[in-house]
Design goal:
Length: 439
């Protein structure tokens, strides 16, 4: 099969696609990855043919538009910032993915949640089967609300909330999609994207573990199959991301008791230096060391490109590191709550504190609490006091036992990759009549 995998976003969005692409390539399929330019070398390191797709997501996440646009200025200013965020990079991604599709003419187009609205029309235009990889529930269901904090409401309200969200998103984006469709020679449409993807026969892989939400797996058993978290196996990590624990980090880890890991990932923390200070105070109160990875942030001079800075043994601050290598050597993990970080922490059997910023992160924070594996709070609410309370929950014997039990219940990474690859292989090309249908 000829397969194009077009994924935008941060490393947390791209890495599962790289894992799946590598598995498909091992099976003899011709895979072309289309990923943000700042992650091209990562995908190529996995041995996959890769082309740039869209904008540099690291620069975007650190831009004033993302960090400050929707939180500063008048209501009108914020509304304009939201509109800019919705449409940022749209024309570029349409142009570049159209070129890839025209060149490859794939049997299957695989995409992620942020680019489905581009992928569906292109799949229809080129007659390709369509596969979407989801890292959390993003379709209507009666279990989990799309609105954080609304899960305590009666279950009958939840599908209504999804309907409102889907309708609002469609109202905000229908014009740009219909412009694209007309340019591709397709009919215009008038219904939200999820319904049309289902009608097209798109396969929506749930790339997260049903152990976190077994009720949803039962509900979606026949329509949205669960594969499990697409974690990067050790052999693939060694080629795609060969960074290892440095001698400096190894010395620090060996010099004292297991630390608490704190990682911001790619998320734009409003004041990362203040976050580091709050973590320092909270860890001091609990008598634990802290290993802080600032990710894509700049925390008072600490950045992903800087070396490690030790304050005397209690706090080590530096750039990105290998979760697989470090998490097993920690007492607990504190992070933004991305699906990949959540999976890595629990797979290592570590209790977790989720400091959510946006997207699916509040969902994963609630699952951590629901499974009694730790605590959650918004990143904007982190202070020394709130972090101290959350950390004490995570360091409790009950949370440690629950995290180990949940780890034992998770689908092994190699099984998840095989399941997901089987699903991609089940996708088929469409006939012209199927491809051009409009609603």
């Amino acid at each position: 099969m000829q397969i194009v995998m077009a994924v935008s976003g941060t490393r947390g969005d791209v890495q599962p696609a790289v894992v799946l692409g590598a598995e498909l390539a091992l099976r003899g399929h011709a895979v072309v990855m289309a990923v943000p330019p700042n992650l091209v070398s990562f995908a190529r390191g996995a041995g996959l043919e890769t082309v740039p797709f869209g904008y540099d997501t690291r620069e975007h996440m650190n831009s004033d538009l993302v960090r400050h646009g929707v939180s500063q200025g008048s209501v009108a200013d914020r509304a304009r910032a939201v509109a800019r965020l919705w449409n940022f990079g749209w024309d570029q991604m349409v142009r570049e993915l159209t070129d890839v599709m025209d060149s490859v003419r794939p049997d299957v187009l695989l995409t992620g949640i942020t680019t489905e609205q581009i992928a569906l029309p292109l799949a229809q235009r080129f007659g390709a089967g369509l596969v979407a990889v989801h890292h959390a529930p993003v379709r209507s269901n009666s279990r989990y609300s799309p609105i954080p904090g609304a899960e305590s409401l009666p279950r009958v309200v939840t599908p209504l909330a999804w309907s409102v969200v889907d309708t609002a998103l469609w109202a905000a984006t229908c014009h740009r999609e219909n412009v694209l469709r007309r340019g591709l020679g397709l009919g215009t449409v008038s219904t939200p994207l999820p319904r049309r993807m289902a009608e097209y026969g798109a396969i929506e892989i749930q790339a997260y573990d049903p152990a976190f939400c077994p009720d949803l797996q039962r509900d979606w058993a026949q329509t949205r199959p669960f594969a499990g978290f697409l974690d990067m196996p050790s052999a693939l990590r060694a080629t795609a991301d060969p960074g290892t624990v440095t001698a400096e980090l190894e010395t620090w880890l060996a010099a004292g008791p297991p630390p608490v890991y704190v990682g911001f990932g790619s998320m734009p923390v409003k004041d990362p230096a203040a976050m580091v200070a709050a973590v320092r105070q909270a860890c001091d109160r609990s008598g634990v060391r802290a290993l802080v990875s600032v990710g894509w942030n700049d925390a008072g001079g600490f950045s992903d490109d800087a070396g490690w800075t030790d304050d005397g043994g209690h706090l080590l601050v530096g750039g990105s590191l290998d979760h697989e290598a470090v998490f097993p050597r920690c007492r607990a993990v504190i992070h933004h709550g991305g699906a990949g970080s959540t999976a890595a922490g629990i797979r290592a059997g570590k209790p977790t504190v989720v400091c959510s910023v946006a997207s699916d992160q509040p969902f994963w924070g609630r699952r951590i609490v629901e499974q009694s594996c730790g605590a959650t709070l918004p990143a904007s609410s982190v202070t020394a006091d709130t972090m101290d309370r959350a950390l004490r929950v995570a360091l409790s014997p009950d949370a440690q036992e629950a995290a180990r039990a949940l780890s034992d219940a998770m689908i092994p990474p190699e099984v998840a990759a095989a399941r997901a690859a089987d699903l991609v292989e089940s996708a088929t090309r469409r006939t012209e009549a199927q491809s051009g249908a409009s609603t």
